[in-house]
Amino acid sequence: MRTQPFPARSPADKVEDLVYFGRMLDKIRAHARGELPEDYVPNLGKGFDGRCVRFLGIEYEDLVARVQQGGTDEQILDWAYGAGRKPSEEEIEIWNAFMRKSGWKDDVTATVERRKKESGLTNRDDIETMFNFIDADEGRELAP
After folding, report:
1. Is residue 82 situated within a structural domain?
2. In the chain, which stretches have pLDDT less than 70?
3. Helix, strand counts (H, E) of the chain
């Protein structure tokens, strides 16, 4: 478990109606400031970041360049919708549910269990998803 505050919000937090997007922006900004923990750097643009940009139909490098121009999270999300695609309300609902449940009885379950073991969190039966793990590992209350 991390002992210092992490410079990114919970993956469950939303920008407009979309989970995870704000966390990805926080990691991009923290990396630009030199504040992102080194073990996060190799996975920038991959994993959930990669899923998110593919869902929006944009390239990660283009998102990084847009974040570096500044603006609010909402302005950057609007840019992403224009540069890529704006998912329907139903697609966003499906995305949010999929992301919140990733690691719960699926192909990511083994990763959640491995990460719990590596972080000394094997006693935490409440950690069932990757979002749960991320929140617990970074010292936050688990998101509902």
Report:
1. yes
2. 1-5, 143-144
3. 7, 2
d(CA 40, CA 71): 24
Same domain, 112 and 93: no
Domain count for the chain, please give it: 2
Q: By residue range, what is the domain housing residue 70?
A: 9-101
Q: For 39-66, what is each residue's pLDDT tens digit?
A: 899 999 999 999 999 999 999 999 999 9
Same domain, 79 and 94: yes
Q: For residue 36, what pLDDT is reported?
A: 92
Q: What is the mean pLDDT of the chain?
A: 94
pTM for the whole thing?
0.93
What phi, psi does 103 have (nearest 5°)? Answer: 105, -10
- Torsion angles phi and psi, residue 40, rounded to 5: -90, -25
Beta partners for residue 18, in sequence order: 15
Are 36 and 62 part of one and the same domain? Answer: yes
